[in-house]
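seq as requested:
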Amino acid sequence: MITKLHIDALVVSKAELYSSVEHFRNLDRELFIHSIRQEIESLVELMSPEVCIKRSEFFNLPGVVPNDYEERILNVSEGLFILAGIRFQGLDVTQPFVSVLGNFKDIDLIPFDKIGELIKEEFKVFRPTCFHVSFPEEKGIPAHNFKIDRYTVMGNIQAIVEQKLKSIPDKVEIKVLNDMNFYDDYVREYDMLYKNSPQLKSEVKIESLESLLEAASENLLFEVIINGKRAGVIAGYVENYFGLNQVCILEELLFEKYRGKGFGVYLQKAFAQKMHGRFEILWGHISQLNPSSLKTALKNGRKITEIEYSFSLF
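struct tokens:
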């Protein structure tokens, strides 16, 4: 049972933890708290019978019943609890993990081993391999059996536009896409990407035609043009980031011919220029398995604000 007291405690603890970092401390306090509450309340909705039934039918795992999908409170010690729920990396049922949010006060005192033991028992029907917890970038965690899963990176669009980049002889530009004639080329490029970098298949997912159409409806879908030729696609979507509705990168794909040549920095700047005047912040998530994308983001002046850690259960 998840009570209002649980929700309130999670809101307070996350707000205090994140507010200890300058970036989050400078956000509008009211919007910041409201955003955290919305996030936690959306997680609580995952315990509803209707949602559990839908998830059970979608994943269709043998020996698993709808109630197993419930988001749940696990008591770790006196005064310390976590909100935990089963997830699947890239919706792949062979890669189960548990997402964790706790009423943590001091990162140095979090009993990660005990949390792991509770999760292994509580979610054993799924056989999760790890559990994930996110913290602000500036909050280092003690040495432990963990790895980084992904980064949240963000940057001020004005600053990105003003960022000085070395000149290149190639012309990188983007144009609004109003049709989906590119989609077959897009799918073929992903097939080649997965063939050359199979480790990315579970982390970097091809976007559905529907999601790209939605981006187009918001004028956030662009064709990449390099030296006058089609070279890829970049798209965004509007998402709340701690109280601010800002643009998040949905897709960024350069065709194989253009990958690894340093065009990504210029592509993101071109995207920021299109967003200038519409949004203040450009942000997104980048997998640890995709270091080139992280390097590109940082070159454009974006900064890591959150890190999602993965703690092994074995």
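Residues 4-144 form one domain.
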